[in-house]
Amino acid sequence: MKVRSSVKKLCEFCRTVKRRGKVYILCTVNPKHKQRQGISTIAYESPVYVLTFFFTLAQNFFICFFISTKTFILFLLICINHLMK
């Protein structure tokens, strides 16, 4: 089965089926025509979670709470850059 963002009927025997919110193309003649509509993983972020990190830099304590993975990665890059100096 092929997973595609846009599914189309490839022959006259292909039929469209919608199950559990996904669109499927099923073919009775050619099994290679079987397709499923995929979901976009870029449209949403991973589940929200809170991470707590404690860093000691030059006798200063930083308590950082991260809500998304993007801010977490950005903060790690800043800390690594600061430690390399």
UniProtKB/TrEMBL annotation:
A GO biological process held by the record: translation
PROSITE patterns membership: RIBOSOMAL_L36
Keyword Zinc among UniProt keywords: no
Keywords: Membrane, Ribonucleoprotein, Ribosomal protein, Transmembrane, Transmembrane helix
UniProt keyword Membrane, yes or no: yes
GO CC, alphabetical: ribonucleoprotein complex; ribosome
Coiled coil: none
InterPro entries named in the record: Ribosomal_bL36, Ribosomal_bL36_sp, Ribosomal_LSU_bL36
An example Gene Ontology molecular-function term: structural constituent of ribosome
Transmembrane segments: 57-80
Protein family membership: Belongs to the bacterial ribosomal protein bL36 family.
Name of the protein: Ribosomal protein
Species of the source: Platanthera zijinensis
Taxonomic lineage of the native organism: Eukaryota, Viridiplantae, Streptophyta, Embryophyta, Tracheophyta
